[in-house]
Amino acid sequence: MRRIMAKEEVCIGCRLCEVWCLVQHSESKDIIKAFRKEEPRPLARVHVEEYGVDSFGLQCRNCEEPDCVYSCISGAMYLDEETGTVQHDPEKCVGCWTCIMVCHRGAILRDERRRRIAAKCDMCVDLEVPACVANCPNEALILQEEGAEE
Amino acid sequence: MRNYKYLIIGNSAGGVGAMEAIREIDKDGPLAVISDEEHHVYSRPLISYYLADEIDYDKIFYRPLDFYEKKGIDPILGRKVLKIDFDQRSVVLDDGSNIGFEKLLLATGGEPFVPLIKGLENHEFFNFITLNDSVKIRERLARKNRGKGVGNRGEGNRGIETAVVLGGGLIGLKAAEALTQRGIHVKVVELADRVLSPVLDEQGSAIIQGVMEEAGVEVITGHTIAEVTGQGTSVNSVILDSGEEIDCSLLIVAIGVRPRVELARDTQIQVNRGIVVDKLMQTSVPGIYACGDCAEVYDFITDGFRLTPLWPTAHVGGRVAGSNMAGVEKEYVWGTGMNAVDFFGFPVISAGLINPPDGEEMEILTRLDEDARIYRKFLIRDHRIAGMVFVNQVDRAGVALGLMREKTDITLFKDKLLRDDFGAIYLPRQIREEINMAVA
Fold first, then answer.
1. Given an 8 Å threshold on Cβ–Cβ distance, is A8 in contact with B63?
2. pLDDT at B198
3. What are residue A26's phi and psi, to 5 degrees?
4. Among partner residues B334, B341, B398, which is closest to A103 by beta-carbon distance?
5. Model's pTM, two decimal places?
6. Are residues A102 and A68 in contact, defined by beta-carbon separation less than 8 angstroms?
7. Per DSSP, which regions of B197-290 are E strands?
8. Across the interface, which of B334, B395, B402 has its CB nearest the CB of A110?
């Protein structure tokens, strides 16, 4: 079970998490190509929420009781048993926005680049450390890993 | 007689919620699901996307095709339950067989409400609830092309140019959207003075009606169909209660669903409009549970029990029922009216109260951007959110629904609610930290 959490007291709102998330979700995995060449531009799944002096990176917190999974009308949002993470299958998503209605953290995005569908953080399950966590200069994003599920 | 520890009648959102919750607790207790539909579990709300050709048939399925096998569930599909034998604790199927149960869940859903209209039953019309409804409408549309090829118009097989949808609720408008996407001219007939009246307030309805009309859908409110005319079984026209006649060759009746309660009616199980359950989702008969469209479930906004025929509430109610059936006690306090939907690219989310109940004074916050057609509304009761409407700007709407469910006092950030980007950042630090689960 992996969970990315935000320590807002040390977040400086630099948005590097957004930059590296976008690169991680690009075809090329190259920062210049990802921003300049890829069409449509890859989508960052983390968003820095900011108001006044406060800020924090918001991405999926991998809820133990994931309302997005329970509420999804198509089965696109699912609990991946192997990794213990909430994942989203864009092929199955129809863009009904029910997940946005029930995510009490506000962590799910609308992806309107091609079809209009939901998008969310996949917790970089293929990486040892998620890109946003690895590249946060102030350690404002931290990774919690628990042993095998249950 | 086959015996199951857990028996579920109904193979949709609620039934699946229960199956999954049971299997999280009890990995191998004998479990079976019975449905009169022959299909692998599919998503009802997706039938409009299938009709519109937005998704292929294989995308309609709600869970992978090996779902029952992987979970160790016996699917008994295409079989109807005729009655419950309370003494034997078994159900009787339409093939005469008996199936015993220790714990039973009624997740029987709803059935289309078909009004009495002169001429309706003599002509071909469609409901829009099941996958088979969608398949049949698609087949009817496919016939159009064959008819056109031989210039065969005016006969029973003529091309479909105009469809009439009776009912301007969620199902009716999704059907209208799908048919429009298939190139058919659609006229929606709604008895109320506006579309989506259970889901949106006047302002929200007006925006969505405008969206539908721009996309080519004609919306006729304040009227209903008085008569259906046709040749043979084919529909030629509908005549409204105003006397106006609308030529059409396809008719969809989508004025609502009512709970399917025939197995519980006139038995020991207490039934109002739907099957009566408590917060554990248990009926008046111990060991027998109900969830979804067939049941009257708890609503945390009205603090009472009522029909809430919605996909998410059915699923979560099913999960609670399943957990209790498997011996882990849980209460269902998660639900209220809640809808998320999209029409022609215009997202809409609403939850809780839409307008104040009769006679109740409530504080109401609204913001309307007419040009961008963005509308947002909050109903505030006792410093807490009691209802919300988001039109065309729905991001982070779940934060507000979460505050509504937790009955959070909003006084400190009330002035931020109407911002486009309202979200966790505007909440007091303590709530924000819960949302971030930041290490202290």
1. no
2. 92
3. -95, 170
4. B398
5. 0.95
6. yes
7. 218-221, 225-231, 234-240, 245-247, 250-253, 257-259, 275-276, 288-290
8. B395
